[in-house]
Design a protein that fits this description.
- This protein has 307 residues and is α/β, with parallel strands linked by helices.
- The chain has one domain: Rossmann fold, CATH 3.40.50.1820.
- It contains ten helices and eight strands.
- The protein has an eight-stranded mixed beta sheet with strand order 1-2-4-3-5-6-7-8, with helices on both faces.
- Helix 9 links the parallel strand 7 and strand 8.
- The termini are far apart.
- The mean pLDDT is 89.
Length: 307
């Protein structure tokens, strides 16, 4: 009877201890379910595909922001990849991109997944996330010798809001009115490339959940989404780009990406827009059916740009 009782106690205490830990550590703006996903679900991804090494690239208000590196055992490629996760600039985790980074490393491509500050977790705005993305990129450039990479061969990318951050590095001038012109290429998964629409009148036919999200994102952009929209900074001589997008994406409608692609090409930029029929937002994730094909095309793109 002793052994069954011991396991019963553990079975009863573990959920209680987990719930207590989550309540104690939950940021004030983060919903409990969001904190559960962050700590438990995303947290488990760290141990499933652990990075080879992690470095702190910046410290903000006692928050250590890290770059998590997946390093190939052997590589003759010149390029590396820096990725930013999605989550509406408000939640999400760098751990969610570990699978992609691990698969790229197996193909001889060094890949890093970056932390950055999030609205629900750190009470920040979009401009803060953009500052972090810039610092992550600059850290990789500054430490290129340590990483054994070429500073002018770093590709940047990300999904959804992370795609926005990546594109912003190459497209949106910073406070010094400069962009990072030595970016090798952009890799964008269902990216938020046009944020200007957030200031438009909210359609009557959208559901209440999406309406609340629309209003919340408007606050994160501090009422000026036009100033932080890559689509408003299209010019010639931008890095080659590949965009993966679902045709049924309700979060970022495909027509916004098609318009972006058309204008980019009119300016003479190389853009490959790959569309997935009957696919919605985040169709590219490691747990989705499209993942193997997405990775195949991504690896081909990276290797082609590395020549």
């Amino acid at each position: 009877m002793y052994i069954p009782m011991k396991f019963l106690l553990i079975f009863l205490l573990l959920p209680a201890l987990t719930a207590g830990y989550l309540f104690i550590t939950k940021p004030k703006n983060m919903p409990f379910i969001g904190h559960f996903v962050d700590k438990i679900l995303y947290g488990s991804l760290y141990y499933i595909d652990k990075p080879d090494i992690s470095y702190t690239y910046a410290k903000r208000d006692n928050v250590n922001l890290k770059l998590h590196f997946f390093i190939p055992k052997k590589s003759e490629l010149k390029s590396s990849v820096l990725l930013f996760h999605g989550g509406g600039w408000a939640f999400g985790s760098s751990y969610s991109l570990f699978k992609i980074c691990k698969n790229l490393a197996k193909e001889g491509i060094l890949c890093a997944s970056a932390d950055y500050r999030l609205a629900l977790k750190h009470d920040t705005k979009v401009k803060d996330a953009m500052l972090d993305a810039a610092d992550a990129y600059k850290w990789m450039v500054k430490n290129s010798d340590k990483l054994n990479i070429r500073k002018g061969q770093i590709m940047v990318g990300g999904g959804s809001s992370g795609g926005h951050l990546a594109a912003s590095l190459a497209m949106i001038p910073n406070k010094k009115n400069k962009t990072y012109d030595n970016i090798k290429a952009m890799i964008l998964f269902n990216p938020a490339l046009n944020t200007s629409f957030l200031n438009e009148k909210i359609p009557d036919n959208i559901n209440e959940r999406r309406k609340k999200l629309w209003l919340y994102l408007r606050k994160l952009f501090e009422g000026k989404p036009e100033d932080l929209s890559p689509s408003n900074f299209i010019r010639s001589d931008l890095p080659p780009s590949i965009i993966f997008h679902g045709e049924k994406d309700k979060t970022i409608p495909i027509f916004l990406i098609e318009d972006f692609t058309k204008e980019m090409k009119e300016k003479g930029n190389q853009v490959d827009l790959l569309k997935w029929k009957d696919s919605g937002h985040q169709f590219y994730r490691w747990d989705k059916k499209a993942y193997p094909e997405v990775m195949e095309k991504l690896i081909l793109f990276v290797k082609a740009q590395s020549k």
